[in-house]
Design a protein that fits this description.
Elements: H1 3-35, H2 46-85, H3 95-100, H4 104-153, H5 159-189, E1 198-201, H6 202-212, H7 214-219, E2 223-228, E3 232-235, H8 237-253, E4 260-267, E5 271-278, H9 285-290, H10 310-320, E6 324-329, E7 335-342
Parallel strand pairs: 2-4
Antiparallel strand pairs: 1-3, 4-5, 5-7, 6-7
Length: 350
């Protein structure tokens, strides 16, 4: 029995108990008056015992009836609403069950709930189709723009022309990343990506994420300090690679030249804990509250590369493994992102 259901039963039980106790007090007083003796024997108190027994029986019957008519239907719609909150818009409640309870308001509630989820499901499908189609349509022209600009940059250009082509390539690359993240988030939200768990080396995956961005941190002369224990983990390997790539990229992006980035990976009996710490520009408390929101960027001028979808995507992937991600930061003191993952393979959503 879940917590919300327990609260309903608790309140109902208290209410019924108070009614029964009040009823017993009244019947006892009436019975004693009828018998005319406050100190009655067991034999003469037999009618009183019958009254008490009947009172408890009636209370039990009333409890069962009200439970079937009100509490069970309320529990069903409460469970359905929890599923809608989790993003399941395909859930429906059996309206025939509402008719059995013979309460018109509950039947109407069931019908309205089903209409609501049908509408939400239609809107979600429309949004998903739109995002998918637009993302795909963007990819081809963006690839062409980036390709032609790269060809132009390879030719003899003056300094101004080379600056223009570099800006074109950078902007096209950012748009390509944006459309890719939008499409990936949409597919993850709607579980459209075929996924299969596998066992892999988590520490090696983090090392690969660091090495793949060697040019970026070498150009800024950053000191990279990996402190990684050997950890074998079972999960979605391709998706987890995106987690470390994004956290590494963010740390490099917001750490000044000659800065330092530390990676740690440890495990305990129940979980695996990884951190990425930099000594960069950091974040205010308000920024930390929104850093995992879609399209949120603390840099309102967008002077730094990014599209505000990297960390929301990371959060989504971590939550798919029933894990959690948090950030601890302060302005001009750097940031630490902590990823906690359960070790048990059965705890990850399949």
């Amino acid at each position: 029995m879940d917590k919300n259901k327990l609260k309903i039963w608790h309140k109902f039980a208290v209410m019924i108990t108070m009614v029964v106790l009040f009823y017993l007090l009244i019947t006892t007083w009436i019975t004693l008056k009828i018998l005319g003796n406050d100190n009655i024997s067991f034999g003469r108190s037999y009618p009183l015992l019958i009254v008490i027994f009947l009172s408890l029986t009636i209370a039990g019957v009333v409890t069962a009836i009200i439970s079937g008519m009100f509490l069970d239907p309320i529990d069903r719609i409460s469970e359905a609403m929890n599923k809608v909150t989790d993003g399941d818009f395909g859930i429906h409640i059996d309206e025939a069950a509402a008719k059995k309870c013979r309460v018109r308001n509950i039947e109407t509630m069931y019908m309205n709930f089903n209409k609501m989820v049908d509408g939400l499901n239609s809107n979600e499908m429309l949004k998903t189709d739109f995002i998918t189609n637009v993302s795909h349509e963007f990819k081809t022209p963006l690839a062409a723009i980036e390709g032609y600009a790269s060809l132009l940059s390879a030719t003899e250009l003056n300094e101004e022309q080379r600056e223009y082509t570099t800006n074109i390539i950078r902007s096209a690359s950012r748009l390509t990343t944006l459309t890719g993240n939008i499409l990936r988030l949409s597919k993850l939200d709607n579980q459209q990506i075929p996924l299969k768990k596998s066992e892999f080396s988590l520490d090696e995956q983090i090392r690969q994420a660091i090495l793949l961005q060697e040019k970026s941190w070498s150009d800024k002369c950053l000191d990279i300090e990996p402190e990684l224990d050997s950890v074998s983990y079972t999960g979605y390997e391709e998706l987890m690679q995106h987690v470390w790539s994004n956290l590494t990229s963010n740390a490099i992006k917001f750490t000044p030249k000659n800065g330092c980035i530390t990676f740690t990976l440890h495990e305990n009996a129940d979980s695996v804990i990884a951190t990425v710490t930099d000594n960069g520009i950091g974040m205010s408390e308000a920024e930390q509250h929104h850093v995992f929101d879609k399209f949120y960027q603390a840099d309102t001028n967008h002077s730094a590369e990014g599209n505000g979808l990297g960390l929301p995507l990371v959060k989504k992937i971590v939550e798919m493994h029933n894990g959690s991600i948090s950030v601890k930061s302060a302005p001009n003191e750097g940031s630490t992102f902590t990823v906690t993952l359960p070790k048990n393979i059965n705890k990850a959503k399949g």
